[in-house]
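Quarterly update from the structural biology core.
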Amino acid sequence: MNREYAVQLRETTTSLYRRGRQWAARVPLRARIILGLFLFSAVLMAIYTSLTAGDASLHLRLQHDFRSAQVSVWVDGDLAYSGRVTGSTRKRFGLIPTDSAQGNLSQIIAVRSGSHNIRLRIEPDNGAMQEESTHANFSPHTERDLVVSARHNGLTASWQGMGRAPVATSSSVGWLSEYAGSLFLTVAGSIVSALAGYAIKELPARRRSPSGSAPNAQLGGD
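Predicted structure, tokenized:
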């Protein structure tokens, strides 16, 4: 049964490949070149978008006293992080267990450079939901620390420092990313301009060609 399915799949794939080649052979060479340029420019724009999608980072430093809780972070209304945190039993003098717990979370969240609204939500399993909102500006290729304290009696959030370069991102990498992004934009812009110029030049000629061939046909008939 598996062999029959493999043979059928191979035949279907071969048939689709042949049909694709026949269709491509009927398409004029100039149209294939234009399609290839469009695809190439789309790939360049996608690469540039991926390079600049998260050129800054938010470092969330959370301390809490819950046994278990759900943590959610929104950036400008979009959910950027969601996860659970757990706390261990707090011991008095390092030996005697107590009824309270403690835990922490360190999470890096990629964001775009610029001004953002940050909203935090803590949903403990044995307590009321808590929310806090704050605002901050992120410079390109920097990391900002948001220190959060989540207790049973409330939630507080404060920014620490003015932003620093991330440890894993060196200045040379940042320079290379900016240079690559500018290069991609330049190449993509050149391709789009060339395609626009070609369309402006060729479309009027294609529209005039049917009307121009009609008088020739009448003259030949006379």
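Residues 75 and 120 are 9 Å apart (CA to CA).
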